[in-house]
Amino acid sequence: MPQPIADPAALEPVPPLQAPPAEHDGLYGGARTRAMLAVSLSVLLSVMDYAIANVALPTIAHDIHATTSASIWVINAYQLVSVISLLPLAAVGDRIGYARMCRFGLALFVVASLLCAVSTTLLELSLARGLQGFGGACIMSVNAALLRFIYPTRIIGRGIALNGLVVAAGVALGPTIAAGVLSIASWPWLFLINLPLGAVALLFAITSLPRTPTRYVAFDGTSATLNALAFGGLIVGFDFLAHRDGLPVALILLGMGVVCLVALIRRQSGRSDPLLPVDLLILRGFRAAVLTGFLGFVASNFFIISMPFTLELVLNRSAVATGLLITPWPLAIVVVAPFVGRLSDRYPASVLSSLGLCMVAGGFLALWLMPARPTNLDIAWRIAMAGAGFGLFQPPNNRAMLLAAPVTRAGSASAMISVTRLLGQTTGAMLVAMTFALLGAGANRACLALASLTALAGAAVSLGRLLRAPATAAPAR
């Protein structure tokens, strides 16, 4: 068995977690590089395409003759299908193997991209985007689990940090690529460029991803249905509520979501391989990492969604200047990633993630306290500070979440990393919409204040891991 990660600070270590058996303890040399390239290209494809569609939405809505409110489903279809599919697909990944699931997701994503490009109506495009979201969920449900078989346990933090860097790069590159493509071609080419990138990713996935253990787990269709109704009802219901659009419908959807979620939890309790990982959520370390991650992404979306409005409407920056001024956020994440990977293999998430979220909160507070007429430098260094903090917070927290689970539950832990991110982003987006609806002109500053407070709440939850005795991971099954 591999040795536990040392804790030089004599603080609470990442729990002495159950690593894969020795014969599965990572790849070395070129084999690891090629396998990680397959994972990175797959994740980049999924994340970048979501960001590209956001930027291109006004152009797409105009060309397919859709209203602004209706065209939102080009975005919502992708995100909604992704959220409700992640946990069921993780269960299937346990059964067929994580590498096979990733390959299937890549192939489906490429086919769906082609369908998006040839769509001529909002319904066709929304359905194709939903299929894209399903393909992306196939990838994101197992990408972190694959890291347990690509990297040795003692340096897995580096792989998780690299994964985070790829996500940040996708977010940063998406708007730039969208602007460049739209300046010389029509919007279908935004989806057609996925074909060569997807083909290269699929080639590496077929030839380089490691074989992972499989085990027969009967697929629970009833639980998968309850999962879809629970997350779908809550997300769509809160979206209706946030936009003050159809209060009766919103309450019905929220009620359905709550009832289905309660039924799902009751059905999953006591099972050895639950689709909703209640067995992992009872582990204190895993639960704390999930809550910390959720609050961190809520805070980030308070900033990411509201800040462009602040820059353009309040501070009178052009669209181009706004894009450049937001760039220090992902750029700072990229810069700190190599250092964070090594730190997260040496120091506990309770220290690194807490420090990172405090930096995030400090950056957002500094933005809130900016002078009325700030220079571009005044804005940029504050955003860079918050971005560096976010880059410090995320990899150690994801590492703690992934390794808190026994290796036989790696698929569910991997899916929960993506579920936590998507739910945090979705909740943050809905809270921003609600804040703008309630406060109007004062919403921009309020969103920065709420972002800072939410990041501090996440830091408090993360720091709480230091004040408790280490939790023991569930036995491997």
UniProtKB/TrEMBL annotation:
It comes from the Bacteria. The chain crosses the membrane at residues 35-53, 73-92, 104-125, 131-151, 160-181, 187-206, 218-241, 247-265, 286-307, 319-340, 347-369, 375-393, 422-442, 448-467. Keywords: Cell membrane, Membrane, Transmembrane, Transmembrane helix, Transport. Signal peptide: none annotated. Residues 35-470 form the Major facilitator superfamily (MFS) profile domain. GO terms for cellular component: plasma membrane. It is a multi-pass membrane protein. SUPFAM superfamilies: MFS general substrate transporter. GO terms for molecular function: transmembrane transporter activity. It is found in: Cell membrane. Its main location: membrane. InterPro entries: MFS (IPR011701), MFS_dom (IPR020846), MFS_trans_sf (IPR036259). This is MFS transporter.
